[in-house]
Amino acid sequence: MKRKNRKLIVLISGLIVANIVLIAVICALFYSKQQKAQSLIAKAQSAYKQADYQGALDCLDKLSDAEKKKPENLLLLAKIEAITKNEHLADTLAEFHNLNLTTKQKALYANELAQINLTVALNKDDYTQADSIFAEQAVVPLDPQLALKLIKHDTENNNNPAALKMFKLLENMFEFDENLNKYYLLTAAKAGEAQLATELFHKNKDLYLKDNQYMLNLEESLLSQKATTLLGEIYQSYLDKKTLNKSNFLRLQKFFKSQNDTTSLEKLKELAKELNIVTSDNDSVGNTQGNILNSGIIAKYKNTLYFPDFSNFYLTKTDDDFANKTVLLQTAVNYLNVTADNIYFVNRLPKANASGKQDKWQEVGPIKRVDLEGQNLQMIYDTEASHLLLEKGYLYFIDHKDGKKLKRIAVSSIDMGEVEVETVVNDAVTEYALNHDKVVYAHDKDHKLHLYDISQKQDKILVNNRVSYVNMAQDRIYYINMDKSSHIECYSLADNKTKTVFNKSQCSQLNVIPGSSQSKDMLLFEKLNLARMRGDGNDYLDLTSDLITHINFVDKYIYYYLEDPNSAWEMYRQEINGGKRMKVVGNK
C-alpha cells in the first residue's frame, strides 16, 4: 500500500513538474512574442520620428493582427498614412473608430486624432475645416510645414490671432530660424499682442533693426494697432544706434510730431545734420507749371484730387470723382502742390472791401504745408507769396514782400527744421517757368521776356515785347504777346527764333501741357471762350462759349471757374476733347 502511494505521489509530482515546465515554456514564448512586438513598435516609433515612414510601416506590418488593432498602433499607422497621403487612411481611421474605447481612452487619443484630421484638411487645402479643427483642439499638424501653411493662410486673411496661436504652439516644439522669428514678431504685432511683440523684439533686437524693409512692415503694423510704446522704443533705437536714413527719418519725424515729443524731434534733427541726410525727393514735382500760372486750383496724387472748396477756398479732397468731398483744412488755399507725403500751398490772405468787411481773398499769403490727411500743419515761410511751384526738390515762389523777387526753398531744409530761402532772380517778376537750371520770366516793370541761367547766374532778354502767361516745354517757350494783340507765340531756344502760333483773336490764361515736340504740345487758353490746340497751331477746338478763368488741367480733364459774379468760384470740369461740362464744386 505504501509502495502504491509512493508511485502515485511520484506520478502526480511528475505531472506537476511537466505542467510547470509547459507553463514556463508558454510564458517564455508569450514573453518572447511580447518582446518582439514591443521591439517592432519601438522601431516603428523611432522610424516615424526620423521621418522614415516606409521603415515604420514595415515594422508595423510585422505585428500580429491583434497588435495591429491596438488603438495606439492604429493611430501610429494613421499618422504615417496622413503624412504620406496614403489612400488607406480612411480605412485605418474607420477601424480605429470601430474599437470599443472607454471615455478615458477617447480623451487620451483626441489630440492625436485632431492632428491627423488637421493634416488631412491642410493637404486638401480645406482651410475652413482646418480653421475649425484648430479653433476647437489647438493642435499642430503632423508636418510643421503644414503648420506654416496654415499660418500663412491666416495672416493673409487677417486672422492674425489664430496664426499667433499656432506660432506659440510651434515655439514649444521647434527652434525658430531668423525668418521664422521675424514672421513670429510681425504676426504678434498684427494681432495686437503688444506685450508679446515687445518681448520678441528684445530677444533679437539687432536682427530686426538691420533689415530696413522688415522694420518698415513692422512699424506699419504697430502703427495700425496703435502700439506706440514699442514703436517709440524702436525709433529711439534708431537714434541711439545712429541708423538713420532718408526713409526712416521721415517716419520718425511724423511719429515724434504725433506724440508731441519735442525732445526726440530735436535729437532727430541734430542727427540728420550730423549724418548729412537729405530728405527731399529731388525728382518731386508738385503741380504743372501751366496750372500754377492759373492759380493752381487742382492737384492730384494717385487717385485723390485736392482743390479749394466753394466760396471759402478751404483745402478739400475727393477720392471718388467729386461724389463726396472732404474738407481737410479750414484754411483758404491756392497754388496747390501735392507729393507722396505733403500738400504745399499758399494760405490766401483776406481782402477787405471799401466798407472794411471781408468779402474777397487775396492771391498772396504765407507758404504752408500739411500732410495728405490734413494733419501736422506747418508754417514754412511767413511772407506774401504767389506762384508757388514745387519742382525737383525746391519750392519756387514770387515774394511780394520783397520786391516780387523769385525765390526758392530747398524742401530738405524744411525737413531739417531750418528753412533756407534763396533768391533766384533779384529783379521783380510777375510770372515764370522752369526747365532744369533755366528760368524764363516776365519782368514786372517792362514785362519783357527774360532767360536766367541759375547755375551760370546769367540773365538775358529773349523778347523785347510785353509778355504774359509764360510757359516752358523743354526748349520751347510759349507766351502771350501783349504788344501784338495778345496773340500766342513760341520762342525756340534751340534756334533762337520766334513763331506765331495763334493770331485770330486776343488770348489769355495760357496753360501749356508739354509734349515730346511742338506738334505734341497741347495749348489751353481763353479767347472770350475756352479753346485748345496743338503747339504747331493744328487740332484747334472751341470747348465752351462762356467766359472762363483759372484754366487748370489734370489727366484728360480741364478744370476752370466761370467768369461770372453770380457763379464765381464754382468749379467746372470738361474733357480736353470736348463734350458737355459738369459742375464739380459749388452750389448744385
Report the CATH topology name of the largest domain. Answer: Neuraminidase
Structural class: alpha+beta
Q: Got a strand count?
A: 27
Radius of gyration: 41 Å
What CATH architecture of the largest domain would you give? 6 Propeller
The helical percent reads: 25-40%
- Superfamily (CATH H level) name of the largest domain: TolB, C-terminal domain
Number of domains: 2
How does this structure look, described?
The structure is a single chain. By secondary structure, the chain is α+β, with helices and mostly antiparallel strands. The protein has two domains: 127 residues, Alpha Horseshoe (Serine Threonine Protein Phosphatase 5, Tetratricopeptide repeat); 297 residues, 6 Propeller (Neuraminidase). It is built from 18 helices and 27 strands. The radius of gyration is 41 Å and the shape is elongated. About 1% of the residues have low confidence.
Précis, in short:
The protein has 588 residues and is α+β, with helices and mostly antiparallel strands. It contains 18 helices and 27 strands.
Which features does this protein show?
588 residues; alpha+beta; Serine Threonine Protein Phosphatase 5, Tetratricopeptide repeat; Neuraminidase; 2 domains; membrane; transmembrane
Secondary-structure map:
Blueprint: H1 2-49, H2 53-61, H3 65-68, H4 71-83, H5 89-97, H6 103-123, H7 127-137, H8 144-156, H9 160-171, H10 178-190, H11 194-203, H12 205-209, H13 212-224, H14 228-241, H15 246-258, H16 262-275, H17 289-293, E1 299-301, E2 304-308, E3 314-318, E4 326-338, E5 342-347, E6 350-352, E7 358-361, E8 365-371, E9 378-391, E10 394-399, E11 405-410, H18 411-415, E12 421-435, E13 438-443, E14 449-453, E15 458-463, E16 467-473, E17 476-481, E18 487-492, E19 497-502, E20 508-513, E21 522-526, E22 530-534, E23 541-542, E24 548-554, E25 557-562, E26 571-575, E27 582-585
Antiparallel strand pairs: 1-2, 2-3, 3-4, 4-5, 5-8, 6-7, 8-9, 9-10, 10-11, 11-12, 12-13, 13-14, 14-15, 16-17, 17-18, 18-19, 20-21, 21-22, 22-23, 24-25, 25-26, 26-27
Helix pairs in contact: 1-2, 4-5, 4-6, 6-7, 8-9, 9-10, 10-11, 10-13, 15-16
